[in-house]
Amino acid sequence: MNSDKQYMRRCIELATQGEGHTYPNPMVGSVIVHNDKIIGEGFHRKYGEAHAEVNAINSVEDKSLFKESTIYVNLEPCAHHGKTPPCANLIAEHKFKRVVVGCLDPFKEVDGKGVEIIKAAGIEVTTGVLEEDCIFVNRRFFTFHNEKRPYIILKWAQTADGYIDSERDDDNNSPKWITNDLARALVHRWRSDEMGIMIGTNTALMDNPKLNVREWTPNNPTRIILDRTLRLPVSLNIFDNSQPTRIYIGNNASAKKNKKDFTETENLTILNIDYAKDVISQVMTDLYEQGIQSVIVEGGTKLIESFYKNNCWDESRVFVGNTFFGKGVKAPEVKGRHFTTNNIDNCNLYTYTNDTLPANNEEGL
After folding, report:
1. pTM across the whole model
2. What pLDDT, on a 0 to 100 scale, did the predictor assign at position 162?
3. For residue 153, what are the contacts with CB-CB under 8 A and spacing of at least 6?
4. Rounded to the nearest 10 degrees, how much is the dihedral formed by the CA atoms of 291, 313, 357, 27?
5. C-beta atoms surrounding 228 within 10 Å
6. What is the distance between the alpha carbons of residues 334 and 144, in angstroms, rounded to a whole number?
7. Which residues contact 310 (CB under 8 A, 6 or more apart)?
8. pLDDT value at residue 172
9. Which residues are catalytic?
10. Which pLDDT score, from 0 to 100, does residue 61 have?
């Protein structure tokens, strides 16, 4: 029904208000409708706090109306005890007339069980309303549970003539800015939305980045660094212990020797992987085990292309400035399906998605 789509769109709008605050939980919005009128709304605001359905139910003063009402939710109501009780049980207890679900929850503790609980209570359930849009809004969550790895966003800035960096030497070793202040603020906002941020050795050494969100809300991601021989100096900003940092080193004499210069702390973890094997897969497995659902990769061309080669990526976000270097480090060759183009002051932002990622259809966002 068209009205179902209308109210599901509102669920999605509400859900996105929790972006960056619900990890490891998904973003969920809920709407309660009585006689074609919204009487209650809610969304999951923060991990550990009440779920969307609870907030929507609590927003309605006259709960006797629920027996003649429909509750909409973009993701299947949970069926297990976590930080909060099961929402499916709460919906069943209030004896709603009907429940409309955007998509089923891929988490093994739910995955259809929530719908079963509600149906067992004699409540009519409709599923699959704007399903692709509902999956899209929680694409990080779905990728994490279905693919057993974090959702990967590849990000870089390149000049109009296709360079990601200029040639550098001892006399000219500072990075040249390609975009603008607005683009930089946007990148910091993106960082606050993801659980991890990754770079390689050369980027850490040449740029000495902090990889934080100092120009946005203080929701710093876990820093993820690849350094086979651990040749990065301990004095770099990434080792300031201000936020969680994981550095992956190899099983070699140099790494073992250089490790003596580091002191592992609560915010600094040094891990050994086999660089003779598939590095990306090893790192993805570890990050999955750590519960890191999403990573924005801001490394150089070599690191980004390694994700393309492994087909281990979901989005590419490419800034193209109006500057020209003439020579330098060539930018990666972008892959995937062109998704959007946006003007960011004096540069353009192009986004691409992996062809295997479900497309967001025209019904929704």
Report:
1. 0.90
2. 95
3. 190, 194, 294, 295, 296, 297, 313, 314, 315, 316, 317
4. 30
5. 17
6. 23
7. 278, 280, 281
8. 64
9. 53
10. 96
- Name residue, tokens 């929850």: 105
The residue to which tokens 């609590």 are assigned: 58
Q: What is the pLDDT, as a whole number, of residue 357?
A: 53
Backbone angles phi, psi at 275, to 5 degrees: -70, -10
- Averaged over successive runs of 10 residues, the pLDDT of the chain (365 residues) comes to 91 94 93 97 94 97 97 94 83 97 89 92 97 96 95 97 84 78 92 95 93 82 97 96 96 94 95 96 97 94 96 97 93 94 94 72 35
pLDDT at site 170: 60
